[in-house]
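Issue: copy button drops trailing tokens. Both records pasted manually instead:
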Amino acid sequence: ALPIFVLSGGGTAGHINPALAVADELRGRGHDILFFGTPDHIEAKLAVEAGFDFVGLKVSGFDKARPWTLLSSTAKIARATNEVVSRFKTRRPDAVATFGAYVSIPVGRAAGKLGVPLVIHEQNSVPGMANAYLAKRADATALTYEQSRSALKSKTPAVVTGNPVRASFETCSRQAGRALLGIPEDALVLLVFGGSLGARHLNTAVCAMKERLLSLEGLHIIHSTGSLDYDSVCEQLMLSAEEKERWHVLSYIDRMGDVLAASDLVVSRAGASSLAEIMTLGVPAVL
């Protein structure tokens, strides 16, 4: 049987895309990949679209504003841990790598219970609760930023690796991106996005600049709103048919590499994975 690697991460593309970048590399080296995530979040879609076997775990986070949710969260994590342990006993993985979010906790705990090597990767400068918990148990800890080291009490010395980006970003081109979007080669393109879930403050600010932006001749705006804000942004903008030819409103961008390559300027939240992708393509950005 081929070596099998289990990867886990969830909630946002910021956790998922680095995991998929590593999964792509491992698959290219001839390994089997099994991806664990939450069934109703973005990882279920992205992992399957990338061709990986996916297992959904029903977990939920702990809301500090509602302390009683700690009980339900703990119970769900315990049940999910038992489910993962059972799966690992059926086919033991060679290693487990987790990339953050609550769904990573039962996967990491199961690895620890069975003595499977556990690697965690922290994308952000301020580590999340899941990685802070698993770092104490992990056999190896990888960081995007040196500044994260002091916030993680890792069992072994952490290594700064940077943030993995999928190899497909290296082959993206301005011409291919513009052909995908149907935007002329000589147009100026502004890309606005707030990460996979969107950013309301960013959406509101850009909508308020509608008249000013559309007054710039030849400017096209690619505006990724996030699914929760899509309808609200459409209502705020009230674009005419003519304006829609230059202001492209999307709830989510599937082929972010191509769209970034097509852009002249990015306005974005400073999410760790967004920064890594923007830097890979060298697009000027306002963050």
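Record 2 (pasted manually too):
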Amino acid sequence: QDCLETRARFHFRTATTVHRLDRATSGLFLMTLNRQAQRHIGLQFEKRQTVKTYKAVVAGNPIEESGTIELPLRTDWYCRPKQMVDTCLGRPALTLWKILDRRENNSLVELKPVTGRTHQLRVHMAAIGHPIVGDEFYAPAEFINESRRLMLHAESLEIRHPSGGDRLRLYDPCPF
């Protein structure tokens, strides 16, 4: 199976994924080299002690400058791997967003997922009427074809280092 973890293990036998991204999302991808580090950082994600920041280009221009999206999500069993908003059976999901740049037909936004549900940012932005440009799952056709890629990038991640506990900010500048 050709994936980043397999490729990393070719060079570092004990490499293990801690933080993953949707296949179409660019940016930071976190791995550790030992079980202790994986457990330490994994617990930080579980306890929501990490800070994740994404950049995205979304369709249109939201009226507000910033906001909070709190919509529960669950798997859409008939259209897997898609997710959907479900106020009865969904798991809590919280996203903070703010406009960074308003353009003619779209906006550059900063997204901060407080929870880490599958496709959370993609579903949440689509649910408020501003799907991420290039999103083949959740955007209408005209916004899928506006870009050759999903315009979502994991730009920064803040964690505590597993040995010593120093605050560590990882950064990969947004390419768009």
